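S.,

As promised, the arginine run. Input:
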Amino acid sequence: MRKLLDILTEQFENVMEECGYDKKFAKITVSNRPDLCEYQCNGAMALAKAHKKAPIMIANELVEKLAGNEMFKEIVAVNPGFINIKISDSFIANYVDDMAKAENVGCEKNIKPKKVVIDYGGPNVAKPLHVGHLRSAIIGETLKRLYRFKGDEVIGDVHLGDWGLQMGLIIEQLRVEQPELVYFDDTYEGEYPTEAPFTISELEKIYPTASARSKEDEAFKEKAHMATLELQKGKKAYRALWKHILNVSIADLKNNYKNLNVDFDVWKGESDAEPYIPAMVDEMIESGLAHESQGAMVVDVMEETDTKEIPPCIIRKSDGAALYATSDLATIIQRVQDYNPEEIIYLADKRQEMHFTQVFRTAKKAGIVDDSVKLIYQGFGTMNGKDNKPFKTRDGGVMRLETLLSDVNDVIYNKIMENRQESEENARATAKIVGLAAVKYGDLSNQTSKDYIFDTERFASFEGNTGPYILYTIVRIKSILEKYAASEGSLDNIETGVNKVLTPSEKNLMMELAKFNATIDSAYEELAPYKICAYIYDLSNAFNTFYHDNKILAEEDKDKQKGFIKLLMITKKALEECIDILGFTAPDRM
Ligand code: ARG
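Predicted complex:
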């Protein structure tokens, strides 16, 4: 469906052409004086200069030609040459009816769908998920859903950190704790056990212990380094242990992501890039792209237009080890080979910006990807506590994701139990749904690159710009529709459209609703989920005002009531599509 503003603009283009003016000045914008009008056109001001006429004359001329147009309820030229517009009830109502009938609530899919890889989540195997991974998962999931909504083919890849020093640390710590394991017996030649020698909760203790030890014990740290190198070179016993670590960890990660309503298509990791590294590095050296610097191999990526220093990208350390950048470069090779995407989007903390600049430039210089492939780094800000410092537990530790979620759920649970008599079980189930919305909306409603303060009380509030408020609105609509269906039979027989003569709040609701396609498109083009949040917040406000100003279930004029119900149905649909893109759902009651 065409966007409302485009349809309006077209009317102005037509009359401008008729009058011999350049139609590029026809642009219509939403009014910045909502007390005076809904939309405005300021083109006459610019045209006046070119045609040496008074702007008001041009404005009057255009208004005269548009006066009979059924789209407008009011169109007036005001000094010095603005055109103020109010659209007609029937025009907005017909537009909303079309939205109700259209696929995707009137938001068009891309004519040429793109193939896109989204690299998000990025958890590190064997380390528990913490709040730092939360943003990557939440934003990445939303972008995936948004791209799919626009018709693109998206491959969501969790890109595990499964190949680093933490593996050697765990192996060496295991050697300390369980030296009798066959993995540490160099004379052992049989098959390794299929069962892991640890559970997830044991594994989660091993890493912090090992990490702490490595900070005090140089020899231990060196051993962990060696173990990591041996693992990477393919030592059978360590590979077998590594597989166990991976399996146990992934099972737990999957569970955690499920609770977040986050879902990956591909569970690849840094280790999957490993096979591509040797040839890639050799080629960069042979072609002369990489050169030696203090024993390491580096690629210069500084460009003339750079205003700040961009250090060279190190692709091999002096001890021969690969680095984070090497692994990301090799992963691009793997992705091109496996999917040949037109776009790769990376979600990572904004402190990783330099890393991605170096990687992207090296990838292009080395011809690992065509110039046409878009490599996009979407850096996000830090999630802070109320003290404006990175979010921590009360005793200053790293907050685990599970703890954070269950804390929020508890707050919501208490609110639900305060408000009404619910069975504990129902209230718990509802709190889980609402809690997720609180966390996700609290995050996504901020501009991605900005830091934000995680404020449980505020995020969990049922009022204001929050996830629970949006859900509360949807639940309210659901309940009215249910009651209507119970008294009138069903909702299916509502074949009439929305009303064509409107109360003020009814019209306002329709005007908000009609921004759906423009909102989704701009969120998509700018990778800006916060725009969808702002839309559903405005839409919820418009709905709630409408709800307070109009009797819906008590309306005696049955046709008018049907029009209201129809409007509720499409409002609910728009809200639900949006929260689906944002990655949460609404309960039936709350
Ligand atoms: N595992 C990394 C971290 O915890 C994030 C990975 C981001 N993705 C990437 N391709 N580098 O910081």
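The chain has a mean pLDDT of 94. The domain at 4-87 is CATH 3.30.1360.70 (Gyrase A; domain 2).

- D.
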